[in-house]
Design a protein that fits this description.
Blueprint lengths: L1 E2 L8 H18 L8 H5 L6 E5 L6 H17 L3 E5 L6 H9 L6 E6 L1 H9 L9 E16 L8 H9 L6 E5 L4 H13 L4 E5 L2 H9 L5 E5 H10 L3 E5 L24 E9 L4 H15 L2 H8 L4 E2 L4 H22 L6
Parallel strand pairs: 2-3, 2-4, 6-7
Antiparallel strand pairs: 1-7, 4-10, 5-8, 5-9, 5-10, 5-11
């Protein structure tokens, strides 16, 4: 267990330096593909396509990528291969994604954690500017969870309880500067409470102490907590999405207590900037249609996800807006990532 501010990876400077080098290389390399013809785009794909996931296997991004790759493989008659490239909070995989040839044969499945990671590490050369959005694939809420020993039943009662005990409650930080960490900082700012952050290398490591009541609160992705909520070992107070979660409509949203609050675990497909527009349009149209199929909706819901869809430009807008929001939160909360 690490106190906030201590880097659990132990090599963030190395990771950031490598990422920066990769990004600089991609600036020149991408120009080589600027002349990809419309004919090539029309014949796409005529070989296997790689989908980089900048996280280790088993997480939400990996789940979405594998569900999507199967659907795309069946649709196009070509193999879509998931390539997990974890490390450095996602910086390793992101670096590989932005430097890949923009020929449509390397895509990347990112989550809402990517804008947060880039904000937390203050990555140079604007990597988001070197990615083109394709489509928002799916989303799930973050859930506010407390140990059942706390005498609170809803968000308002928890806020009042925490305000009366400034700094006495603690919450899980599964990675300093992670999406869940920054979302919790946003929640504390908006509700005017202060809790003690305790950093762990993963959600799983912090879960043990939360279940034992040694920490009292967390805001995290729904999937790891679902079984504990169902068994009563943890209590769900609210979901972080703007509207009630369709898979559990009985659980209220944070915004019903704090108007305007929203923090979402979303997943989107992107590609290196310079990928032919025809390929992006084709992928966007085809994936939108796939996401409307009842069997696709069912397979995603079985994993606790709701399909999304939409236009390519909304992905780029979302990445930029959230990156700017998390930069502000990091400055306001004086969060430091020790390199």
């Amino acid at each position: 267990m690490n106190r906030l501010g201590i880097d659990g990876e132990g090599n963030s400077m190395t990771v950031l330096a490598v990422f920066t080098l990769l990004l600089r290389c991609c600036l020149g390399g991408s120009m080589l593909f600027a002349g990809v013809s419309q004919c090539l785009a029309q014949n796409w794909p005529n070989k296997s396509v790689r989908i980089i996931v900048p996280m280790a296997a088993g997480g939400g991004s990996d789940t979405v990528a594998r569900l999507l790759s199967q659907k795309l493989g069946d649709h196009y008659g070509q193999q879509f291969v998931v390539d997990n490239r974890g490390g450095g909070g996602g910086l390793i995989g992101i670096g590989m994604g932005v430097k890949a040839p923009p020929d449509g044969y390397t895509l990347m499945l990112i989550s809402g954690s990517v804008p947060a990671t880039l904000a937390a590490h203050n990555v140079p050369n604007d990597p988001l500017g070197h990615l083109s959005g394709i489509i928002k694939v799916a989303y799930s809420p973050l859930v506010l969870v407390v140990h059942p020993a706390l005498p609170v039943k809803n968000t308002r009662e928890f806020i009042d309880f925490a305000r009366a005990r400034p700094g006495q409650l603690s919450f899980i930080v599964p990675g300093v500067g992670s999406l869940t960490h920054l979302a919790t900082e946003l929640f504390m700012r908006e509700s005017k409470i202060r809790m003690q952050p305790i950093a762990y290398k993963s959600t799983g490591l912090g879960m043990t102490e939360l279940l034992a009541g040694q920490t009292q609160f967390t805001m995290g992705g729904l999937q790891p907590f679902f079984s504990y909520i169902q068994s009563g070992r943890l209590r769900a107070l609210a979901m972080s999405t703007a509207k009630r979660w369709p898979l559990q409509p009985e659980v209220p949203t944070v915004s019903e207590t704090i108007p305007g609050f929203e923090a979402e675990s979303w997943f989107a497909l992107v590609t290196p900037k310079g990928t032919p527009a025809e390929m992006i349009v084709t992928l966007n149209k085809d994936i939108n249609q796939l996401l409307e199929q009842p069997e696709t909706i069912k397979s995603f819901r079985q994993q606790g996800l709701v399909v999304s869809g939409g236009k390519p430009e909304t992905v780029e807008q979302r990445m930029r807006q959230e990156n700017e929001r998390w930069i502000r939160i990091i400055k306001e909360a004086n969060i430091r990532i020790e390199e």
